[in-house]
Amino acid sequence: MCGIAGYLNIHEDVTGIETILRMTRAIAHRGPDDEGFIFIRSEDGAISEFFSDQSAEGARAGSPSGGDPRLDIIRKHRIAMGHRRFSIVDPTPGGHQPFFSADRRYCMTFNGEIYNYVELREELEREGIRFRTSSDTEVLIEAFRAWGTGCFERFVGFWGLALYDTQRKRLLLARDRIGKGSLYIHRTPQTLHWCTEIKGIRAVVGRENMPVREQAVADFVVCGHRDLFDETMYEGITTFPRASWAWINDDGSFTPQTYWSIPTQRLGTKDISPQEAARGLREHVREAVRVRLRADVDVGIGLSGGLDSSALVVFAAEMSPGIKSYTASFPGTDMDETEYALQVVDSMGGRLDHQCLELPHDAFLGSMDNYVGMIDEPFHAPGVFVNHLLRRRMAKDGLRVILNGAGGDELFGGYPGIFHRPFIASLVRRGKLMQAHRECMRYSESRASFGSRTYLKRMFGGFNELAKQCCPQLEDWRWNQRQVENNACGVVDFDVQPRWRRTENFQDTLHSNMTDWQMNYWMRLCQQTSMSIPIEIRKPLLDHRVIEYAFQLPLDYMIKDGWLKWILRKAFEDDLPRGVVWRDKKMGFPTPVTQWLLELKPQLLGVLESTTCPWIRMDRIQATYNEIAQRDPLFLWRMLSVGLWWNRCVQDESLNRNPSIAA
Length: 663
Fold this sequence. Notes:
Strand 14, helix 8 (307-319) and strand 15 form a beta-alpha-beta unit. It is globular and about 80 Å long. Helix 7 packs across helix 8 (307-319), helix 13 crosses helix 15 (453-470) and helix 23 (601-608) crosses helix 25 (633-650). The protein has 26 helices and 20 strands. By secondary structure, it is an alpha+beta fold. It has a seven-stranded antiparallel β-sheet. Strands 5-6-7-8-12-13 form a six-stranded antiparallel β-sheet, covered by helices on one side. Among the domains are: 3-258, Aminohydrolase, N-terminal nucleophile (Ntn) domain (Glutamine Phosphoribosylpyrophosphate, subunit 1, domain 1); 415-507, no CATH class.
């Protein structure tokens, strides 16, 4: 994982290296190992390489030009591409970017990893291609040379890339299927900019030319949604669409071509038995872990004590005995999952080198200015910083790569508040009333007796969900009421109506969470928080083959007998302790949010007392802080997060000006 940046000047050639240098230096944290540039002239497509004082030792020697830049091209060029390298595979200078194909037709900058590069390399070698390095970067560009844009369908991994074809004299941008590799776009009548992070574009565009998108702020604060439909918090900055590639036109426009989508047709329970489905899922996860353990650096794993990360540990401990694993601990709170993580560790028979880390709840204050600045946009919960602390400790221990269990909840219906009611509604819609009855009674988060208040609430919730699907006006009324409540509190003031996701059936809810309504945000946030360290996060459960398999399994295998993620539990029930697999309540790297907000109230309000954010009423927040912290702590945090982001990123003001924080 690295960082890329570049621009296409639309009307005339430009001069100098300052612009691209500002872009790459803004994302230098992503690539401490190497830096490189190319400049491309419009009249003949001539290319010049440039090596800086931060380029890797030995990288210049690998250049056919000997590293001597064509100053005439640098002084007058149309396209510039820059790269910051974080070495994972083939850390030698041979992996320096921008990287040229063997015939010098293509030149590319690439952020990501191609996990199946070994198999692809062997296939390409059988076609007569000879490799100069052992990097996945070379496999990627030679695969493009052999198969064109069809290569993207063959890759297992993630990427955001820019590639220049010297024959066609055209630029191509591309992004992986799920959008793990970030790629931001900013287009004006004069220039098209692209970069792995917003701050790289901001470094050359200027904050005065990046107005905030009020709609995005309202969506985030009121509804908890961010990064909807490739948007960002800034007007004019979008993300290049996932699962797409596009040739860039001379005017900077492009038409993305989609090469992959999530399956929409599922098997029925008569087509595949639970045993077959569980075996198949287990093998898909095994293969996803296997290829993600490939690295020329140390690899570790985060173990929350939940099912998703524990499932990965099964194979990681088997394939890489002694692998380092880490758990975040919150002693004395009902959010502490250490006991479950230790059950998994004990079951691995000494094949894990495990650490439980007690993370200080107030560490955010000392790192707030740097962290908020790194993230570029507001974030949904303070627990994100806990993950950052944990990964920072992992990096301190020498790790450059960690496996992470993200994606299991989206794939298999693991969020109680999101998936259970739509599932009950789907059963009612299909006339399976007895099954709906059993699911309401056996719901693992909290069992209920027939006719009890809890039971009736669940059944009513399912019928209510179905009613909203059939009558969208009910949904409009509910959200309007919520907006009225927020306005009545006087804590927010928006001129736009927040966008919410209308009630969907169970299948559509699963699909939406894997695409525009949730996964976009998870992927961007993970990129920002991990690469600010830097450390690379690999997510086996988001391997596209696992996703395709999961989205073809029967819906009735997602939730069954009251158990969320039932098929994933069945797949690993023989590998993990029963108390972990068939555990009642879900947490997953949680933090005690209400307690955290109340304890840090003086400091947080002190930082934001003079914020100029036009949509957040700090006087009203201060007056109702304790009440909102108890009633809806994440709503309170989202308002605070917007205020912190506004001060630090929009206004470029330090968050450490308050003496109590700076200390």
